Amino acid sequence: MKKTIFALFCLSVLSSVSSFAFQGDLDQGIYELNRGAFKAAINEFEPLVAQEYSPAQYQMALIYLNGYGVKKDPNKAFELLSLAASQNHPDALFSLSLMYSDGVIVKKDLKTAFALMERAAIRDSVAAQFNLGVMYFNGTGTYKDYPKAARWYETAAKQNYALAQFNLALMYFEGLGVEKSVEMSFVWNIIAASNGYENAGKSRDMDSLKLSNVEIAQAREKADRLYQQIIEQAELKAKQ
Predict the structure, then answer these.
(1) 4-49 residue pLDDT tens
(2) What is the pLDDT of residue 5?
(3) What does the angle CA 122 – CA 235 – CA 159 come to, to the nearest 5 degrees?
(4) How many angstroms separate the Cα of 219 from the Cα of each of 152, 153, 158, 168?
């Protein structure tokens, strides 16, 4: 038993070392990609793809999808996204979900789109968390479930995703999936507006018409505290 545990530990260490080594090449590839040096980026990514490194598979999928330095090849992009998604790469799962939702590159399949979006959301893709909330709200690929929609909006909102903050405010305003609260609608609209979402500013002003001056002052204090917590959490996450 001890030998088995030791062997597994060794494999874990080797895997960590490999991932660390790959990360440097991946970062260089992303740097080249961002500055428009597509061939140089591809030269960094392709050896990693050969090693089945999912972040590189995802980056190469984007290259084929957009035709960066290569001829556009949506089918190749789909293949690479599928490979990365099979390793639970969050962004690949999210992108693949959108493909199944749109039904352009692959046959439209909303149930598969939902399943992929859920996997991405569980793995902390904020965009997926928001989209999963939308899918629960509309019953896309699943049943309508306002409480679950609200919970996923809140999960993304607390990671400073403005659209989720705005949608969560709407849920509070209408009392969908949460207890109706104009105050909490006001709070989340303040935060979403602080993140530059224009419609939230308009909704915030509408909310204020339904609140007393005392309630507005209390809600602003609550919004300030919550927003500060969100920013601090984001900074902490960025350091990890």
Answers:
(1) 444 444 333 334 445 667 898 999 999 999 999 999 999 999 999 9
(2) 41
(3) 35
(4) 22, 20, 17, 15
Q: What confidence category does residue 237 fall into, taking pLDDT thresholds of 50, 70 and 90?
A: confident
Read off the tokens for 100.
């199944």
Provide mean pLDDT across the span 63-80: 97
Helix (H) or strand (E) holding 126: helix 126-138
**Is residue 226 within 8 Å of 191, Cβ to Cβ?**
yes
Domain ranges of the chain: 145-240
Q: What is the DSSP secondary structure assignment for residue 211, as one 8-state letter?
A: S
- What is the structure's pLDDT at 240? 75
Tokens of 208: 């204020």
Confidence of residue 99 (pLDDT cuts 50, 70, 90): very high
- Provide the token pair at 110: 């909303």
C-alpha span between 58 and 36 (Å, rounded): 17
pTM more than 0.70: yes
Spatial neighbors of 135 by CB under 8 A, at least 6 apart, are 113, 114, 117, 141, 142
* DSSP state at residue 212: -
Q: What angle (nearest 5°) sits at the alpha carbon of residue 188, between those of residues 157 and 239?
A: 40
The span from the CA of 180 to the CA of 163, in Å, is 19
pLDDT in tens, 191-218: 999 999 999 999 999 999 999 999 999 9
What single letter denotes the amino acid at residue 31?
A: Y
Count Cβ atoms below 10 Å from residue 168 Cβ, excluding itself.
32
141: left (phi over 0), alpha (psi -120 to 50) or beta: left
